[in-house]
Amino acid sequence: MSAPKSLFDKVWDAHVVRKIEDGPDVFLIDRHFIHEVTSPVAFLGLEGRGLGVLFPNRTFATADHNTPTINQHLPVQDPLSANQLKALETNSAKYGISHWGLGHAKNGIVHVVGPENGITLPGMTIVCGDSHTSTHGAFGAIAFGIGTSEVEMVLSSQCIMQPKPKKMRVNINGKLGKGVLPKDVTLFIISKLSAAGATGYFCEYAGDVFENMSMEGRMTVCNMSIEMGARGGMIAPDETTFAYLKGREQAPKGEAWERALAYWKTLKTDEGTVFDIEYTFDASEIEPQITYGTNPGLGTGISQNIPQAANVLDGAASYAKSLNYMGFAENDQIIGKPIDYVFLGSCTNGRIEDFRAFASIVKGRKKADNVTAWLVPGSHIVEAQIKEEGILDILTEAGFALRQPGCSACLAMNDDKIPAGKYAVSTSNRNFEGRQGPGARTLLASPLVAAAAAVTGKVTDPREFL
Amino acid sequence: MAYDKFTVLKSTAVPMPIENVDTDQIIPARFLKATSRVDFDKNLFRDWRYNNDDSPKADFVLNNPIYSGKILVGGRNFGSGSSREHAAWAIYDYGFRCVVSSFFADIFKGNALNIGILPVQVSEDFLHKIFTAIEADPKTELEIDLPAQTITILATGEQESFAINGYKKNNMINGYDDIDYLQSMKAEIAAFADKSLY
């Protein structure tokens, strides 16, 4: 009998075209997503070398990073952004790549539209010039972010050259407490492992906490894998995965579906597989989380105080710099901190379940006067669902407006910038200095924590409202 | 894009003893709007380097004339966060050819190697020795010998070995790149892709 293999090994090994001795694997890519920011120089490179796109039907383009989230029917005002969006359109047309640009009915954030249209499937290898490509691992795919040189490699040869990462598994079993969402699970893991704790590894999430999660929840968890340094994260596909995919536009149909399904059912880690490192937590340890520092590892349970330097993994000088930027001090209570902005959206928490969770708290309440709230759906499909389900009415009644899809304030490339010195409770993925605008101060949290902050104007334990 | 070949580099170094230097610090997202590789060096460490009115921040190391060189020395977990290759471009175009740290984020490390920056990972102890040596004398030179895979603090003779796979090492020494390699095996790739389920 052959040695037991992990889910990760099975998918990786099936895609190695060539192994280079004392070097990387030449690795075949099944699906390649591109957006306007990290692709133009790759296309220039192709031109410079006189190369074409080897398999244009395996690359998908969507505009998201730069797009405005209001008045999308008008010309984009920032000339640089408009130029990048135009370049994506022109390059896609030139090489025959499917392009869902601004205004297209299926436009949205790349990591939202891939799965919801059935482009992302179990067992695939998926890359994009964006580190949150790890999102697609929720389907049992190997998915990770790449640089622009690698975008050029995939366009020209459908391959990249990668050394195989080491294997990590994070196991969580038990029942999650009231008000604890998938975002809290991932922020909890990252706070335990630190922002660099999984560097060099590819992470599998296992245990009934993940088995019982929806696909949206699994995407939130896998999305954040990069925030602990992991190249990606993945969860074995199961009936939840198959039910989500069945009937999606680009998912296989009829006989092809049955054939794919039979293969997908083999995609799980064999009994007895040994991981390079393994962590186990109990679901009961996790309360709603929030970050207080300038990397995603600097987070804690919302009822806790900001830790002392001796109790965090970062060095004392870096920790002091981080708290200074945030305007916080060791031992501060986090609950009750006044906030100015709330951002619901991004590839981490811009899906329908996130809007349902947010609405569950703001229903029948009012937005706090001191809060500016930006609610940004991950795609037009999510936007339509928000309207169909009556969530928009709840939000409007509570004093919130819905914006149009895009990456928005997650990285503030468009006009959605948090002003310097202001505090934002954000459902996105990074709290780095200036990430949401120069001088902006970000507290990462779940949609429930964001909703509780939006109606109270300060950091509030959402369990008070549930 | 072609890059300078790398064999032995002897240079002074710029010290940045900060952990978790993420790629949003190296180059903030709002400076990623170009459609060609120009001027990224101007916005390298933009928000640490300049005030809002574009005046230089006197206390930032790149604005301190006593530090210069082709080597950037950073704290643990250098290059974390976003996959933007623009971060590596900004560092290269500014004039750095090597980044030394005790730990690199994966994507940054790959991007650096692909564009001709050598990431040299040293022990925490050796990193501390480098910072101490530069603090004592900003003119301290480091020697990075890629064929021998060693890094040396020339003033003290202290030396450490670093790891790099043979394939990438050969690329760096000769200025080769992965795209040419992949082009050379296109038929093999096409045959493999034909059998793919997807």
From TrEMBL, chain A:
What name has this protein been given in UniProt?
3-isopropylmalate dehydratase
Q: Which ranges carry the Aconitase/3-isopropylmalate dehydratase large subunit alpha/beta/alpha domain?
A: 9-457
Which PROSITE patterns did the record assign?
A: ACONITASE_2
Q: Which keywords label this protein? A: 4Fe-4S, Amino-acid biosynthesis, Branched-chain amino acid biosynthesis, Iron, Iron-sulfur, Leucine biosynthesis, Lyase, Metal-binding
Q: Organism's domain of life?
A: Bacteria
**Function, please?**
Catalyzes the isomerization between 2-isopropylmalate and 3-isopropylmalate, via the formation of 2-isopropylmaleate.
> Which reaction(s) does the protein catalyse, per the Swiss-Prot or TrEMBL entry?
(2R,3S)-3-isopropylmalate = (2S)-2-isopropylmalate
The annotated pathway is: Amino-acid biosynthesis; L-leucine biosynthesis; L-leucine from 3-methyl-2-oxobutanoate: step 2/4
Tell me its EC number(s), please.
4.2.1.33
Q: NCBIfam families attached here? A: leuC, PRK05478.1, PRK12466.1
Alphabetized InterPro entries for the sequence: 3-IsopropMal_deHydase_lsu, Acnase/IPM_dHydase_lsu_aba_1/3, Acoase/IPM_deHydtase_lsu_aba, Aconitase_4Fe-4S_BS, Aconitase_4Fe-4S_dom, IPM_dehydratase_rel_enz, IPMI_cat
Q: Which cofactor does it need?
A: [4Fe-4S] cluster
Q: Which Gene Ontology terms cover its molecular function?
A: 3-isopropylmalate dehydratase activity
- Asked whether the UniProt record includes Lyase among its keywords, one would answer yes
UniProtKB/TrEMBL annotation, chain B:
Keywords assigned: Amino-acid biosynthesis, Branched-chain amino acid biosynthesis, Leucine biosynthesis, Lyase
- Which InterPro entries does the protein's record reference? 3-IsopropMal_deHydase_ssu, Aconitase/3IPM_dehydase_swvl, AconitaseA/IPMdHydase_ssu_swvl, IPMI_Swivel, LeuD
Per the UniProt record, one Pfam family is Aconitase_C
- GO MF annotation terms: 3-isopropylmalate dehydratase activity
EC class (word) = lyase
Catalytically driven reaction(s): (2R,3S)-3-isopropylmalate = (2S)-2-isopropylmalate
- Keyword Nucleotide-binding part of the UniProt annotation: no
User: Among its keywords, does the record have Iron?
Assistant: no
The annotated pathway is: Amino-acid biosynthesis; L-leucine biosynthesis; L-leucine from 3-methyl-2-oxobutanoate: step 2/4
Regarding protein family, the annotation reads: Belongs to the LeuD family. LeuD type 1 subfamily.
Annotated NCBIfam families: leuD, PRK01641.1
What is its biological role? Catalyzes the isomerization between 2-isopropylmalate and 3-isopropylmalate, via the formation of 2-isopropylmaleate.
The name this protein goes by in its record = 3-isopropylmalate dehydratase
Protein species of origin: Emticicia aquatica
Q: Which gene encodes it?
A: leuD1
